[in-house]
Amino acid sequence: MSTSTKLQGTVFSVIVIISFSHFLNDMLQSVVPSIYPLIKDSLGLSFTQIGMITLVYQCTSSILQPLTGYFADKKPRPYSLSVGMLFSFTGVLMLAFSQQYELILLAVSLIGLGSSIFHPTASRVVQTASGGRKSFAQSIFQVGGSSGTALGPLLAALIVLPFGQSAISVFSMAAVIASILLLKAGSWYAASLKATLSYQKTRNVTECDLSKRAKTAVLALLVFLVFSKHFYTACITNYYTFFLMEKFSQSVRFSQICLFVFLGCTALGTLIGGFLGDRIGRKYVIWLSIFGAAPFAAAMPHLDLAGTVICASISGFIIASAFASILVYATDILPNHVGMIAGFFYGLMFGLGGLGSAFFGWMADKTGIIFVFYVSSLLPLLGIFAGFLPDPQRKNGKI
């Protein structure tokens, strides 16, 4: 059997390692917004300052990810995955013991830097290990991150809230574990690159037949759809607990559990979306996932507590199914730039999340947290524009 044939097989062990590391990485990230109620009270922060913490963290990720992805395409660094986790390790320890707002900003910027190094190279490794089953591998990778995002608030409620800010240091062990595991994945990736340096350029990829101008237009539309999705999810992720506490007078712990339920539904939606993307077409998954969430998102601010939690969870489940399809759709358009595209869209996701958090934090200070949810509930309506994406079946290829 030739080397290229071996490389085309799906390497499940590597996909599992990368996905579990994604779980640990995103769990660390989700701890940051989960402790907002704690540090808001202890440090006397405003909603605007809370939003700025997320903005600094997300911008550290979003600005650097396309750049690290570009270099990952040009000159892969298999062991950069482990190095990135060391930055996250340092940031988590600093976050645990910082008592000044400026040090909090520095801590979250280090966590963001670690994330910016991780995602582009991890996406390249996953696609290399997929054996051509890109949607399958991407959905597994993505659900690892979504599961970590869902678990973070629950662990924060169980560990950080009872024992205080210093208990955040416990989560630094997740970065250590991920760094060790990624050494094995990096070793496999280095061996695969050594076996055939031309694999990423010569693998069996069906080229998209769109013109350069059409590709640019499609990517711009995908960016717009990512905006509608992540501005909405940024509002829920960062301010859902405050909304439940203010409108329904719920405790911090109960609100954190509701956030865990919402994020758990997004993890499940991500997996289902990846599964359906190969079967009904990625365009239709993108369209149905964003626009399909609109009725539930619009109803949520008008309902009682039970209805709010149910509609929030359903909207999270539906809208989360979009991202894996968006990312694979984009890499199908530019198949030789997987790292750069992955870095761009993950960076865009984080950057828009940061901007959305800062914007809605500012709006909450001006108008109140309940009004913020009336505004954000309209964002999924923009998903109707996904109907302008090219048909999934084309004469010379599939998108």
Neighbour order of strands in the largest sheet: 1-2
Q: What is the overall shape? A: globular
- Mean pLDDT comes to 84
Element string (H = helix, E = strand): HHHHHHHHHHHHHHHHHEE
What do these coordinates show?
By secondary structure, the chain is an all-alpha fold. Helices cover 80% and strands 1% of the residues. It has 17 helices and two strands. A two-stranded antiparallel ribbon has the order 1-2. Strand 1 (393-394) and strand 2 (397-398) form a beta hairpin.
Sum this structure up briefly.
This protein has 399 residues and is mostly helical.
Secondary structure layout:
Blueprint (H helix, E strand, L loop, with lengths): L2 H6 L3 H23 L1 H8 L3 H28 L5 H18 L3 H29 L4 H30 L8 H24 L3 H4 L9 H37 L3 H29 L1 H10 L2 H6 L5 H16 L1 H12 L4 H30 L1 H8 L16 E2 L2 E2 L1
Antiparallel strand pairs: 1-2
Helix pairs in contact: 2-6, 2-7, 2-8, 4-6, 4-16, 5-6, 5-8, 6-7, 6-16, 7-11, 7-15, 10-11, 10-14, 10-15, 10-16, 10-17, 11-12, 11-14, 11-15, 12-15, 16-17
